[in-house]
Amino acid sequence: MKQQAQIKTIFFDGGDVLVKKIVNIEKQISSYLGLDLNVYKKAEKDLIKSNKEIQKRWHDIKTLEKEIKYFRFYNEELLKFLGLKMDPETIEYMTMCHVKRSHVPIAGTREVLDYLFKRYQLGIISNCLVSRKYFEIKDFDLEKYFESITLSREIDIDKPNSGIYLHALKQVGKKPEECAFIDNKIENLLVARELGFGKMVLFPKQDYDGKDIQSIQSIQELASIF
């Protein structure tokens, strides 16, 4: 029987694992514009579907500066699509709603990271905007815990595409079986399993019948798993 490799690196998802969203950006902007929320959401959906330039620029958000430029362009196009006045103040307000801090650490996160940081190499694999690294991870002093931070917009690969996992593994110089992954979506953990990750943890707890993915209700439970 092949001996199981020792876990050396633990990767975390970002949203709903390390941090939780506290701002409803769509509600915030629609209220500012004086629009019904559903009208605003439909306009966004229709615009993204029909505007090829927005789709193209989305794949080139690799820095904070490019992200800000993208949302300025996006919001100009959205106001035009809605038939509203495109004044600089409104565009900047809408842009900063997308870019500025909108998440806070989940209760117990810092204590668990303090514990795990002394025992393992830690990393992040997350589908999120580049700004999250600056306005959540840095602002809340979480960056010090992580040797590797792999964000989908920086490399233009989203989970569950295996490429983002392979990129993260290369960053830390570890084999899949030496790594664990904590995520809030089954489909992301299943890819980690297919790649041969040594341990997969589903957080927060959800219904799942598989025996190879452990499910936890509280992030503090990680201290008893690792």
From TrEMBL:
InterPro entries: HAD-like_sf, HAD-SF_hydro_IA, HAD_2, HAD_sf. PANTHER family: ALPHA-D-GLUCOSE 1-PHOSPHATE PHOSPHATASE (PTHR43611), FLAVIN MONONUCLEOTIDE HYDROLASE 1, CHLOROPLATIC (PTHR43611:SF3). This is HAD family hydrolase. It comes from Candidatus Yanofskybacteria bacterium RIFCSPLOWO2_01_FULL_49_17. The lineage of its organism: Bacteria, Candidatus Yanofskyibacteriota.
